[in-house]
Design a protein that fits this description.
Residues 251-286 have a biased composition (Low complexity). With 292 residues, the chain is of the alpha+beta class. 33% of the residues lie in helices and 6% in strands. The chain has helices at 31-45, 55-66, 71-81, 85-92, 114-118, 121-131, 174-186, 201-208, 229-236, 248-251, and strands at residues 106-111, 145-150, 162-164, 167-169. β3 and β4 form a beta hairpin. α2 (55-66) runs antiparallel to α3, α2 runs antiparallel to α8 (201-208) and α3 (71-81) crosses α4.
Length: 292
Protein backbone atom coordinates (compact mmCIF):
# COMPACT_ATOMS: atom_id res chain seq x y z
CA UNK A 1 0.00 0.00 0.00
CA UNK A 2 1.47 3.38 -1.01
CA UNK A 3 2.34 5.79 1.77
CA UNK A 4 2.32 8.85 -0.50
CA UNK A 5 -0.37 11.43 0.33
CA UNK A 6 -3.30 11.80 -2.04
CA UNK A 7 -4.50 15.30 -2.86
CA UNK A 8 -8.27 15.73 -3.13
CA UNK A 9 -9.57 19.07 -4.39
CA UNK A 10 -13.02 19.99 -3.13
CA UNK A 11 -15.45 22.60 -4.39
CA UNK A 12 -16.69 23.70 -7.76
CA UNK A 13 -14.24 23.61 -10.65
CA UNK A 14 -13.42 27.00 -12.17
CA UNK A 15 -14.60 25.86 -15.61
CA UNK A 16 -17.71 24.04 -14.41
CA UNK A 17 -20.85 25.05 -16.36
CA UNK A 18 -23.25 27.10 -14.31
CA UNK A 19 -20.65 28.83 -12.14
CA UNK A 20 -22.05 32.06 -10.63
CA UNK A 21 -18.64 33.66 -10.35
CA UNK A 22 -17.18 33.61 -13.84
CA UNK A 23 -15.68 36.00 -16.39
CA UNK A 24 -18.24 38.46 -17.72
CA UNK A 25 -20.71 38.01 -14.85
CA UNK A 26 -22.08 41.23 -13.37
CA UNK A 27 -19.97 42.16 -10.34
CA UNK A 28 -21.75 45.25 -8.96
CA UNK A 29 -24.89 47.33 -9.54
CA UNK A 30 -24.83 50.96 -10.64
CA UNK A 31 -25.99 53.42 -7.97
CA UNK A 32 -29.41 53.98 -9.56
CA UNK A 33 -30.08 50.22 -9.79
CA UNK A 34 -28.91 49.64 -6.21
CA UNK A 35 -31.16 52.45 -4.97
CA UNK A 36 -34.18 51.01 -6.76
CA UNK A 37 -33.49 47.49 -5.49
CA UNK A 38 -32.93 48.80 -1.96
CA UNK A 39 -36.42 50.33 -1.95
CA UNK A 40 -37.98 47.01 -2.98
CA UNK A 41 -35.79 45.08 -0.55
CA UNK A 42 -36.82 47.30 2.36
CA UNK A 43 -40.47 46.51 1.68
CA UNK A 44 -39.72 42.79 1.52
CA UNK A 45 -37.54 42.60 4.64
CA UNK A 46 -40.20 44.44 6.67
CA UNK A 47 -42.54 41.46 6.21
CA UNK A 48 -40.39 39.16 8.36
CA UNK A 49 -39.57 39.11 12.10
CA UNK A 50 -35.91 38.40 11.26
CA UNK A 51 -34.18 40.07 8.35
CA UNK A 52 -32.41 36.93 7.14
CA UNK A 53 -35.79 35.24 6.59
CA UNK A 54 -36.18 37.45 3.51
CA UNK A 55 -33.24 35.82 1.70
CA UNK A 56 -35.30 33.60 -0.63
CA UNK A 57 -37.52 36.42 -1.97
CA UNK A 58 -34.49 38.72 -2.20
CA UNK A 59 -32.78 36.19 -4.45
CA UNK A 60 -35.85 36.22 -6.69
CA UNK A 61 -35.64 40.03 -6.71
CA UNK A 62 -32.04 40.11 -7.97
CA UNK A 63 -32.87 37.31 -10.41
CA UNK A 64 -35.62 39.53 -11.79
CA UNK A 65 -32.99 42.24 -12.29
CA UNK A 66 -30.34 40.14 -14.03
CA UNK A 67 -32.28 37.16 -15.41
CA UNK A 68 -30.11 34.87 -13.25
CA UNK A 69 -28.03 35.01 -10.07
CA UNK A 70 -24.88 37.10 -10.41
CA UNK A 71 -22.06 38.12 -8.05
CA UNK A 72 -23.71 41.56 -7.94
CA UNK A 73 -26.95 39.98 -6.70
CA UNK A 74 -25.12 37.86 -4.13
CA UNK A 75 -23.27 40.90 -2.78
CA UNK A 76 -26.48 42.98 -2.66
CA UNK A 77 -28.41 40.32 -0.68
CA UNK A 78 -25.50 39.86 1.72
CA UNK A 79 -25.29 43.58 2.48
CA UNK A 80 -29.04 44.04 2.93
CA UNK A 81 -29.35 41.08 5.33
CA UNK A 82 -25.95 41.41 7.06
CA UNK A 83 -24.90 37.96 5.86
CA UNK A 84 -21.67 36.73 4.33
CA UNK A 85 -21.49 36.17 0.61
CA UNK A 86 -20.78 32.50 1.35
CA UNK A 87 -24.08 32.18 3.25
CA UNK A 88 -26.03 33.73 0.39
CA UNK A 89 -24.16 31.66 -2.19
CA UNK A 90 -24.95 28.44 -0.32
CA UNK A 91 -28.70 29.15 -0.54
CA UNK A 92 -28.59 30.39 -4.14
CA UNK A 93 -26.83 27.24 -5.32
CA UNK A 94 -29.06 24.88 -3.33
CA UNK A 95 -32.41 25.67 -4.97
CA UNK A 96 -32.89 24.92 -8.66
CA UNK A 97 -35.27 27.84 -9.24
CA UNK A 98 -32.31 30.20 -8.92
CA UNK A 99 -30.58 30.19 -12.31
CA UNK A 100 -26.79 30.35 -12.45
CA UNK A 101 -26.49 31.20 -16.14
CA UNK A 102 -28.27 33.73 -18.39
CA UNK A 103 -31.82 32.57 -19.08
CA UNK A 104 -34.11 33.32 -21.99
CA UNK A 105 -37.37 35.23 -21.79
CA UNK A 106 -39.12 31.88 -21.41
CA UNK A 107 -37.70 29.01 -19.37
CA UNK A 108 -39.23 25.86 -20.85
CA UNK A 109 -38.95 22.89 -18.53
CA UNK A 110 -39.93 19.37 -19.54
CA UNK A 111 -40.69 16.97 -16.70
CA UNK A 112 -38.80 13.72 -17.27
CA UNK A 113 -39.49 12.07 -13.92
CA UNK A 114 -40.97 8.58 -13.97
CA UNK A 115 -44.62 9.15 -14.85
CA UNK A 116 -44.08 12.01 -17.30
CA UNK A 117 -41.24 10.04 -18.92
CA UNK A 118 -43.46 6.99 -19.34
CA UNK A 119 -46.18 9.20 -20.84
CA UNK A 120 -43.79 10.79 -23.34
CA UNK A 121 -41.73 13.39 -21.48
CA UNK A 122 -38.40 12.15 -22.84
CA UNK A 123 -39.77 12.24 -26.38
CA UNK A 124 -41.02 15.80 -25.86
CA UNK A 125 -37.64 16.97 -24.57
CA UNK A 126 -35.77 15.32 -27.45
CA UNK A 127 -38.19 16.84 -29.96
CA UNK A 128 -37.78 20.36 -28.53
CA UNK A 129 -33.99 20.04 -28.34
CA UNK A 130 -33.91 19.11 -32.03
CA UNK A 131 -36.48 21.75 -33.02
CA UNK A 132 -34.78 24.67 -31.26
CA UNK A 133 -31.42 26.15 -32.20
CA UNK A 134 -29.76 25.97 -28.76
CA UNK A 135 -26.39 27.20 -27.61
CA UNK A 136 -24.20 25.53 -25.00
CA UNK A 137 -26.38 26.80 -22.13
CA UNK A 138 -29.60 25.47 -23.67
CA UNK A 139 -30.82 28.86 -24.91
CA UNK A 140 -31.90 29.81 -28.42
CA UNK A 141 -29.74 32.23 -30.40
CA UNK A 142 -32.41 34.93 -30.16
CA UNK A 143 -32.44 34.67 -26.35
CA UNK A 144 -36.13 33.90 -26.25
CA UNK A 145 -36.24 30.31 -24.98
CA UNK A 146 -34.13 28.25 -22.58
CA UNK A 147 -34.80 24.51 -22.45
CA UNK A 148 -34.14 22.28 -19.43
CA UNK A 149 -35.15 19.07 -17.71
CA UNK A 150 -37.22 19.63 -14.55
CA UNK A 151 -38.11 17.47 -11.61
CA UNK A 152 -41.67 16.51 -10.65
CA UNK A 153 -43.92 19.54 -10.19
CA UNK A 154 -46.85 17.70 -8.57
CA UNK A 155 -49.05 17.62 -11.66
CA UNK A 156 -48.77 13.91 -12.41
CA UNK A 157 -52.49 13.67 -13.15
CA UNK A 158 -51.88 15.86 -16.23
CA UNK A 159 -48.74 14.04 -17.46
CA UNK A 160 -46.76 14.66 -19.53
CA UNK A 161 -46.30 18.22 -18.26
CA UNK A 162 -44.27 21.08 -19.69
CA UNK A 163 -43.75 24.22 -17.64
CA UNK A 164 -42.95 27.67 -19.01
CA UNK A 165 -41.74 30.12 -16.37
CA UNK A 166 -43.35 27.76 -13.82
CA UNK A 167 -46.78 27.86 -15.49
CA UNK A 168 -48.36 24.49 -16.36
CA UNK A 169 -48.94 23.18 -19.87
CA UNK A 170 -50.78 19.90 -19.32
CA UNK A 171 -51.17 16.75 -21.41
CA UNK A 172 -48.48 17.74 -23.90
CA UNK A 173 -47.25 16.00 -27.02
CA UNK A 174 -44.12 16.73 -29.06
CA UNK A 175 -46.25 18.60 -31.60
CA UNK A 176 -48.13 20.71 -29.05
CA UNK A 177 -44.91 21.57 -27.20
CA UNK A 178 -43.29 22.71 -30.46
CA UNK A 179 -46.30 24.95 -31.15
CA UNK A 180 -45.93 26.54 -27.70
CA UNK A 181 -42.25 27.43 -28.18
CA UNK A 182 -42.89 28.67 -31.72
CA UNK A 183 -45.63 30.99 -30.46
CA UNK A 184 -43.39 32.22 -27.65
CA UNK A 185 -40.53 32.99 -30.02
CA UNK A 186 -42.81 34.78 -32.50
CA UNK A 187 -44.40 36.96 -29.82
CA UNK A 188 -47.87 35.52 -30.17
CA UNK A 189 -49.90 35.45 -26.92
CA UNK A 190 -49.68 32.15 -25.09
CA UNK A 191 -51.92 31.07 -22.22
CA UNK A 192 -51.07 28.05 -20.04
CA UNK A 193 -53.52 25.27 -19.21
CA UNK A 194 -54.56 27.20 -16.13
CA UNK A 195 -53.72 30.64 -14.87
CA UNK A 196 -52.84 33.92 -16.53
CA UNK A 197 -51.29 34.62 -19.94
CA UNK A 198 -47.52 34.18 -20.04
CA UNK A 199 -45.11 36.84 -18.83
CA UNK A 200 -41.33 36.84 -19.14
CA UNK A 201 -38.93 35.00 -16.86
CA UNK A 202 -37.81 38.23 -15.18
CA UNK A 203 -41.41 39.31 -14.60
CA UNK A 204 -42.13 35.89 -13.11
CA UNK A 205 -39.12 36.22 -10.79
CA UNK A 206 -40.46 39.53 -9.49
CA UNK A 207 -43.84 37.94 -8.77
CA UNK A 208 -42.07 35.11 -6.91
CA UNK A 209 -40.26 37.76 -4.87
CA UNK A 210 -43.65 38.63 -3.41
CA UNK A 211 -44.94 41.49 -5.51
CA UNK A 212 -48.57 41.44 -6.77
CA UNK A 213 -49.49 39.42 -9.83
CA UNK A 214 -52.03 41.63 -11.57
CA UNK A 215 -52.53 39.44 -14.65
CA UNK A 216 -56.18 38.43 -15.21
CA UNK A 217 -56.73 34.82 -14.21
CA UNK A 218 -53.51 34.63 -12.19
CA UNK A 219 -55.24 33.01 -9.24
CA UNK A 220 -57.58 30.67 -11.14
CA UNK A 221 -57.50 27.11 -9.86
CA UNK A 222 -56.88 23.94 -11.89
CA UNK A 223 -59.77 22.26 -13.73
CA UNK A 224 -59.65 19.34 -11.28
CA UNK A 225 -61.10 16.64 -13.57
CA UNK A 226 -58.20 14.16 -13.66
CA UNK A 227 -57.30 15.01 -10.08
CA UNK A 228 -60.70 13.85 -8.83
CA UNK A 229 -61.09 10.84 -11.16
CA UNK A 230 -60.02 8.32 -8.53
CA UNK A 231 -62.44 9.75 -5.96
CA UNK A 232 -65.34 9.59 -8.42
CA UNK A 233 -64.52 5.97 -9.35
CA UNK A 234 -64.40 5.00 -5.67
CA UNK A 235 -67.80 6.54 -4.97
CA UNK A 236 -69.38 4.96 -8.04
CA UNK A 237 -68.03 1.57 -6.99
CA UNK A 238 -69.21 1.96 -3.40
CA UNK A 239 -65.62 1.68 -2.16
CA UNK A 240 -64.69 2.85 1.30
CA UNK A 241 -61.48 3.07 3.24
CA UNK A 242 -61.04 0.23 5.77
CA UNK A 243 -62.00 0.94 9.34
CA UNK A 244 -59.07 2.07 11.46
CA UNK A 245 -57.41 -0.65 13.54
CA UNK A 246 -58.16 -0.56 17.26
CA UNK A 247 -55.72 1.44 19.29
CA UNK A 248 -53.34 -0.14 21.79
CA UNK A 249 -55.33 1.16 24.76
CA UNK A 250 -58.54 -0.50 23.57
CA UNK A 251 -56.84 -3.86 23.00
CA UNK A 252 -55.12 -4.16 26.36
CA UNK A 253 -57.08 -4.63 29.56
CA UNK A 254 -55.31 -4.28 32.87
CA UNK A 255 -55.29 -7.61 34.82
CA UNK A 256 -57.44 -7.84 37.91
CA UNK A 257 -55.51 -7.52 41.15
CA UNK A 258 -55.44 -10.59 43.48
CA UNK A 259 -53.92 -8.76 46.43
CA UNK A 260 -56.14 -8.49 49.55
CA UNK A 261 -57.90 -5.21 49.95
CA UNK A 262 -56.43 -2.98 52.61
CA UNK A 263 -57.82 0.19 54.11
CA UNK A 264 -55.57 2.96 55.24
CA UNK A 265 -56.14 4.05 58.87
CA UNK A 266 -58.15 7.20 59.21
CA UNK A 267 -56.26 10.22 60.51
CA UNK A 268 -57.69 13.49 61.66
CA UNK A 269 -56.88 16.34 59.36
CA UNK A 270 -57.18 19.78 60.88
CA UNK A 271 -59.49 22.11 59.06
CA UNK A 272 -57.70 24.94 57.32
CA UNK A 273 -59.10 27.91 55.57
CA UNK A 274 -57.33 28.84 52.40
CA UNK A 275 -56.69 32.54 52.02
CA UNK A 276 -59.03 34.20 49.61
CA UNK A 277 -57.42 35.02 46.31
CA UNK A 278 -58.78 37.34 43.71
CA UNK A 279 -59.35 35.89 40.30
CA UNK A 280 -56.91 37.31 37.80
CA UNK A 281 -58.34 39.99 35.63
CA UNK A 282 -58.91 38.92 32.06
CA UNK A 283 -56.95 41.10 29.74
CA UNK A 284 -58.44 41.85 26.37
CA UNK A 285 -56.57 40.35 23.46
CA UNK A 286 -54.03 42.63 21.87
CA UNK A 287 -54.87 41.23 18.48
CA UNK A 288 -57.50 42.95 16.41
CA UNK A 289 -60.31 41.08 14.71
CA UNK A 290 -58.49 41.48 11.44
CA UNK A 291 -55.35 39.85 12.88
CA UNK A 292 -57.24 36.97 14.53
Amino acid sequence: MSSEPVFLEFGQKPDEPGAIVRPGARQAYPDEVRERLATDAGEMVARYPQDRSALLPLLHLVQAEDGHITPAGIEFCAQVLDLTAAEVMGVATFYSMYRRTPTGDYLVGVCTNTLCAVMGGDEIFASLAEHLDLDGSGTTDDGRVTLEHIECNAACDYAPVVMVNWEFFDDQTPASARRVVDDLRSGRPVTPSRGAPMCTFRETARILAGFPDTRPGANDGPPGGPTLAGLRAAREGGMQAPAPAPTFDSEVTAPESTAPETTAPETAVPETTAPATAAPETQPSARSDEEA
